[in-house]
Amino acid sequence: xxxxxxxxxxxxxxxxxxxxxxxxxxxxxxxxxxxxxxxxxxxxxxxxxxxxxxxxxxxxxxxxxxxxxxxxxxxxxxxxxxxxxxxxxxxxxxxxxxxxxxxxxxxxxxxxxxxxxxxxxxxxxxxxxxxxxxxxxxx
Length: 139
Fold this sequence. Notes:
- The protein is mainly alpha-helical.
- The chain has one domain.
- 63% of the residues lie in helices and 0% in strands.
- Helix 3 (43-68) crosses helix 4 (83-97).
- It is elongated and about 55 Å long.
- The model has no long low-confidence stretch (mean pLDDT 83).
């Protein structure tokens, strides 16, 4: 019920959608995709992140290993995961499978048109400073 109200509220206001996207973009950017940079997390949240990131990444590496051991292994393998998984997943692929990056390809996952959003430069600056301050409080 609350989630539905929130979704309707976001859907009704282009400015609020832009504000929400900007907050998410700034948060992910400040963390550089690494949730461990949040610092002071409760033990329960740390365990949850451990399961959501490390344990799931371990499963991905195991699945890749199984695929590579097939009689006819695939020529390519794609893994679609969120930014929070990438630091740990890259480290595992390098360490456990001896993979090395050869190129980076970036795709836009979330974007906000600041000029067309209705957000003022002062509001954009407020979002950025608030996100930075909140994350510093958690560190």
